[in-house]
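Look over both lines:
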Amino acid sequence: MRKSQCLLPLALGTFGLGLTEYVMMGILPDVAKTLNCSIPMAGNFISLYALGVVFGSILLVIIGRTRPLKQILIALAVIFTVANLALVVAPNYYVFCALRFIAGLPHGAFFGVGAIAAGKLCDKGKTNQAVATMVSGMTIANLLGIPFGTFLSHNFSWRITFLIIGIFGFLVLTSIMKLVPYLKPMPDNGFRGQFKIFKSLAPWILIFAVVMGNGGIFCMYSYINPLLVNVSGIAPQYVSLIMILAGGGMCIGNFFGGKVADKFSPALVAANTQLVTCLVLVCMFFLSKNPYLAVFLMCLCT
C-alpha cells in the first residue's frame, strides 16, 4: 500500500473535525434562534467544544497512552460520529452544550495521535509535509465544507448540516480500519513521565505562543458571521462565499507552511506566522467597518 493512501484517513479525520469545529461559527445565529438563546449564550457552543478538546487530550494521556495508535484513532472516530449524530436531535440549549463538549473530546487527541502516525507513515525527511497533509483536511473543511454547511443551515436547517457530518464520520471510521496499518504504542514512561518535557522552558514558550495566536484567531473567527454582517455591512447571503475565500487562504498557508518548514526552521516559520497574525488582527479591529478590508484581512489571517 502506498504511504499516501495511509495518510488519507488522517486527512479525512481532520476534515470532519474541522467541519465540526468551524461550521458552528457560520451557523451560530441559526442555532441560537432555534434553541431560543442569545448570540452570546450560543458562543458557549464554541467554548464548550474547546473545553472538550482540552479534556480529550488529558484523557488520552491517562487512558490511551499504552494503546496501539490505530486503536486510538478508531475510538476517537466513533466518538466523533456518535456525538454529531446526537446533535441532530438535540432538543434544547443545555443538551446541545453537553453534546458539543463530547464532540470536542476527540479533536485534540486525534491531531496528536494523527501527527505521530503521519510521522511514522511518511518517507524520511518529509515529516512536516506529512503532518501538513494530515492537517490539509481541516483547511479543506474551511474551503468547502463550512461554506456548504452554512448554506444548508441558512436555507434548510442546521440539523441537516450535523447529520451530514455524522454520516461522514462512518467514512472516516471505515477508512481508518481499512487503510491505516498497525502502529505500535508509543513507549510508556508512566503518567508522570508524560510531563517531564515541561521541566524545560521551550514547551512553555510554544504553548504560550499557540494559545495567544490561536486564541486571537478564534476570537475573530468565532463571531465571523455577526462581524461581517453587523459590523462590515455584508449581506448574509455572501457569508458562505467569503468563508470559501478564507478557507482558500488556509489551504495555501498550510501547503506552503509544510514545504517551508521542511526546508528551513519550523520555529522560524511559526514565529513569523504569529507575527503576521498579530498585525492582521490589530488591523481588523480598527478597519473591519470597511467590508473590503475586512474580507481581505480575514483571508490573510487564516
